[in-house]
Amino acid sequence: MTRTPLLLALGLLPILATTACNAAGPDASEQKAPATAAASADQRPFTATEVSRFDQPWAMTFLPDGSLLVTEKRGKLQHLDLASGQKHEITGVPKVAYGGQGGFGDVILHPDFARNHVVYVSYAEEGTLDTRGAAVARATLALDANGGGQLKDLKVIWRQTPKVSGEGHYGHRLAFGPDGKLWISSSERQKFDPAQDMSGNLGKIIRLNDDGSLPADNPFASQGGVAAQVWSLGHRNVLGIAFDASGKLWAQEMGPAGGDELNLIVRGANYGYPIVSNGDHYDGRPIPDHDTRPEFAAPKVTWNPVISPAGLMFYSGSLFPQWKGSAFIGGLSSTSLVRVAFDGDSAREAERFNMGERIREVEQGPDGALWLLEDGSKARLLKLTPKA
Question: Euclidean distance between the first and final Cα of the chain, in Å?
């Protein structure tokens, strides 16, 4: 099949790829990557310093006081005081369906958190008859004097519909946009066709008001029901959503066997999965490329072999001035940190840093440092600062 290769900068490290064994089987992200040697310190423009360790961390967000909230996949929310290094568990989190790719997911702050102390969390929850689905809840974060605290008045404001069998492709990444709306990535749960089915919200990007109600100006609002939640459709497994400085929404998603994507998310657009993809099914069956069906929105960047993207953020700090406006993606099977550069609506991979471990999450700290969460048990929280 025709491929659209990514133009890589000179000197980039080799891409690592893994292969799953069946059509709906585990992503490359869930496979153990081959052992790799970490890049030597003189190959990186930054120093990576270990700050703490967590058990299967999935997401993090900074509080206004500079401390950090970190979700752990088994169902814990940790509060880390970076000044003292003390870590305390936040109680009152919802019960999660842990297993496979499922568990506790994202955590973000309400845009007016400094006043209302509202946070949003996503997680996998159990249904009936061995089914599961992602859910999003909002709650008030009440910290205590010792650094611990609890989530109060937790209320579920969104659920994947329908709940299905299996433990893969929840997505459930969260972001607030410049418009004050809540955006949710809802992956297709390894079920393929629901990504094109507007009677459910699997394989979609969702846009809600901050209380979970439906904005009247969503593109499919007139259809009513679940369709009224949808901003875009035809997505596979979206594990990163972020807004750039101009207010445009970007999302990265895992392709099947090949074809990881970075997409510019456009109102009402259909991104084609599973009808088109720049990858193939895990069992070797081909999927037509995007260029065979121009009615579907094509990715701005395609990775083949895959990087297994996880986490997405746009850099706006001054600590690394050469990177301002770039996006950063954590790589799982590629054990990498990937920098993407932009020229208007065009994008390309600009640099790749081999971190030697699977990178689950990347964020920008208050001082402009980059912060990474490794994947798995005893995973390190790393702070990246410029070399002296």
Answer: 47
Smallest CA-to-CA distance from 169 within 229, 74, 105, 107 is with 105
pLDDT tens track for 304-340 = 999 999 999 999 999 999 999 999 999 999 999 999 9
Identify the DSSP state of 165.
S
Q: Are 309 and 253 in contact (CB under 8 A)?
A: yes
**Distance from chain centroid for Cα 55:** 18
Vertex 314: Cα angle to 309 and 318 (nearest 5) = 135
Map residue 187 onto helix, strand or coil.
coil
213: CB partners within 8 A, 6+ apart: none
Would residue 235 show up in a list of annotated catalytic residues for this protein?
A: no
Q: How far apart are CA 43 and CA 37, in angstroms?
A: 12
Rg (CA), the chain: 19
**3-state secondary structure (DSSP) of residue 351:** strand
For residue 223, give both structure tokens: 């259809």
| Integer Cα distance of 23 and 30 in angstroms | 15
Cβ pair 218, 229 in contact under 8 A = yes
DSSP state for residue 221 in the 8-state scheme: G
Buried b (16+ CB within 10 A) or exposed e, 359-388: bbbbbbbeebbbbbbbbbeebbbbbbbeee
pTM for the model: 0.91
Two structure tokens written together for 122 = 């996503």
Locate 146 and state its tokens. Answer: 């010792």
Of 110, 169, 235, 281, catalytic: 169
